[in-house]
Write a structure and sequence with these properties.
With about 260 residues, the chain is α/β, with parallel strands linked by helices. The protein is built from 10 helices and 13 strands.
């Protein structure tokens, strides 16, 4: 997964649990061809309309500008989600829009803009999960008018991270000295075989902190009851999320959530 590889190698911040990101990338590489064949003979979740409600599935790891192969391997593109929402927004037969979410999150790019689109939609909106609405997926889902989860689902993970491997000791033991010729004190931060200096570390930390602050601010635009202590990267069950104000209600199934929408 090209878009996850960049994040896992420390080239950009991620909005997904580190273990799940790595597991997804490994499985996609190992079983990609088998899964691709299954997708060719199966059917990826597609937007649909039920009784005047436009349903937009957000299923899989979230990225932007994904290749067809990445989508076949189970990722969802924010561009496709945005296009589906636009189509429902302009369709007079669609009275409401519901996001059916099953996602551990993904990359940062495009998530804030998609959440803004959901928040500013003139039609009533609902976000629902009976599995997982975490990190980037929660940023998007929290922008809906109502956020509903099943009691045993996983919700939250309001945090951002970067993971930059430091192979400088390994390079030294192998007799390799990495020489980086650059201009700009922040250029080339994290090049394999080097260590981050204090200035580079501070700059990257500041970037991650800024995204986290924007994430929390975005959540509180609609979910005003969520306290700061519930937005430090932890995840909650649906029941716990309701108690924390992360969701506005519980429903055992998507159909149950739609009936009260």
């Amino acid at each position: 997964m090209r878009f996850l590889t960049n994040g896992l190698s420390g080239r950009e911040p991620l909005l997904i649990d580190p273990t799940k990101a790595k597991d997804h990338a490994v499985l996609a590489e190992k079983f990609g061809f088998t899964d691709m064949l299954a997708q060719l003979f199966g059917q990826a979740p597609a937007p649909y309309v039920v009784d005047g409600v436009g349903i937009v599935p957000i299923v899989g790891v979230i990225g932007k500008g994904l290749s067809p192969l990445e989508k076949m391997m189970g990722a969802v593109d924010v561009n496709d989600v945005s296009a589906a929402i636009d189509a429902f927004a302009s369709d007079p037969a669609v009275e409401k829009v519901a996001l059916q979410i099953s996602s551990p999150g993904g990359t940062v790019t495009g998530v804030e803009e998609l959440a803004n689109k959901v928040r500013n939609l003139s039609k009533p909106t609902l976000a629902y999960t009976d599995s997982e609405m975490a990190s980037a997926a929660y940023w998007i889902g929290s922008a809906a008018d109502r956020v509903v989860a099943s009691p045993s689902s996983t919700v939250g993970s309001i945090g951002v991270y970067m993971a930059i491997p430091d192979y400088s000791k390994a390079a030294e033991m192998a007799g390799i000295k990495m020489v980086v010729i650059k201009s700009g004190k922040f250029k080339g931060a994290g090049i394999e075989g080097t260590s981050l200096d204090e200035n580079q570390m501070g700059n990257l930390q500041a970037g991650v902190d800024t995204i986290h602050a924007e994430f929390k601010e975005a959540v509180n635009m609609k979910r005003k009851m969520v306290k700061a202590e519930a937005m430090e990267g932890q995840v909650f069950s649906g029941k716990q999320a309701a108690a924390q104000g992360l969701v506005t209600g519980l429903a055992d199934s998507f159909n149950d959530a739609l009936r009260s929408f």
